[in-house]
Amino acid sequence: MLFKQQVWLRQKLLVLGSLAVGSLLYLVARVGSLDRLQPICPVESRFGGAHNQAEFPLRALQFKRGLLHEFRKGNSSKEQVHLHDLVQQLPKAIIIGVRKGGTRALLEMLNLHPAVVKASQEIHFFDNDENYAKGIEWYRKKMPFSYPQQITIEKSPAYFITEEVPERIYKMNSSIKLLIIVREPTTRAISDYTQVLEGKERKNKTYYKFEKLAIDPNTCEVNTKYKAVRTSIYTKHLERWLKYFPIEQFHIVDGDRLITEPLPELQLVEKFLNLPPRISQYNLYFNATRGFYCLRFNIIFNKCLAGSKGRIHPEVDPSVITKLRKFFHPFNQKFYQITGRTLNWP
Fold first, then answer.
1. Could you state, in order of their start, the residue ranges of all structural domains in the chain?
2. How far apart are CA 8 and CA 20, in angstroms?
3. Contact 258, 105 (CB under 8 A)
4. DSSP secondary-structure letter at 275?
5. Residue 80 near residue 153 (C-beta atoms within 8 A)
6. Tens of pLDDT along 73-125?
7. Which of 99, 218, 263, 267 is the most exposed place for a label (fewest CB within 10 A)?
8. Residue 159 burial by Cβ neighbours in a 10 Å radius (0-12, 13-18, 19+)
9. Which of 4, 78, 100, 200 is catalytic?
10. Contact criterion met (CB below 8 Å) for 303 and 294
11. Annotated binding-site ranges for 3'-phosphoadenylyl sulfate
12. pTM of the model
């Protein structure tokens, strides 16, 4: 009889323990949810005078298409009713480049800010003739849902080097904010090559060595016909953009510093976009395994960039690196002069 009572008591304790753990997990999740749902903060924005004193919900209320359906089911709440204010709006800022400069990292980090809503994929509207022919409403429908007071941002790094893009963006919005993230030009060119090389290897295809592509074998000089080299001549592309937009509408982000010290770079972007400072060191933590900073949205939700980021570069002949850096140097100096930002490039 005593043994049965002990078994019954043990079972009861197990049930109670399970309930306690379940309740604790629910409370933790609820706290995280409330942390994201309830607070509001003012937006001071030069993007719309009427919204200067407006308020916007924090991160979890930036619902995208898939979540709208979920919040329209069941009992109504203030948050659910507020969803009717969501719209798909054209971007007020675009990360226009550069390829392999850190555009994805920049977009994901800016998405930490409650006033920013990002397009999840590269739209390639302005650089793709077929997409552009579909019209501006097609482009708008590719944007995420957001509140009118929020800033929608998309990134398509091919925009920076495509001839037709500056005029096309100007026709959409002549006062749009343009973000360019750059890395040391030789490093960026090698990173560009590395991504293409990886794609070839996945398909069991052979590919030339970087040195053979970057240096013209006939002249032994830098091969400016090689796209990875051309993309790194930043000033040449920027001059084309300046025919349509004043330099004040551009902000240069140091992609090398974004890797090692992301917060100061993000704070500069907040200031450029006229956003209240919201991204803090709490939102960024270094992942020693990955060798990169990861993102912390709240006590529950963390995010690291895809594993494809930070590929190991192949070894490149030091003499080729020296030749490339010497080639890029005068272009870099002009880039510093135009943008007003000097970067620590060799």
1. 86-339
2. 18
3. yes
4. P
5. no
6. 344 455 554 566 899 999 999 999 999 999 999 999 999 999 999 998 999 99
7. 218
8. buried
9. 100
10. yes
11. 100-104, 183, 191, 293, 309-313
12. 0.78
CA distance 264 to 250: 18
Identify the DSSP state of 157: G
Strands (E) in the chain, as ranges, are 40-42, 55-57, 87-88, 93-97, 116-118, 145-146, 151-155, 177-182, 250-254, 284-287, 292-296, 302-303
CATH architecture for the domain at 86-339: 3-Layer(aba) Sandwich (3.40)
Question: Side-chain half-sphere of 135: how many Cα atoms within 13 Å?
Answer: 2
List pLDDT tens digits, range 163-209. Answer: 999 999 999 999 999 999 999 999 999 999 999 999 998 998 989 99
134 is catalytic: no
Q: Is 201 helix (H, G, I), strand (E, B) or coil?
A: helix
What DSSP line would sit under 29-46, residue for residue? HHHHHHHHHS-EEE---T
Q: Which amino acid is at 55?
A: E
Q: Please report, in range form, the residues annotated as the binding site.
A: 100-104, 183, 191, 293, 309-313
φ, ψ dihedrals at 302, nearest 5°: -120, 160
Interval 305-342: pLDDT, tens: 876 566 788 999 999 999 999 999 999 999 999 999 99
152: nearest Cα among 241, 249, 87: 87
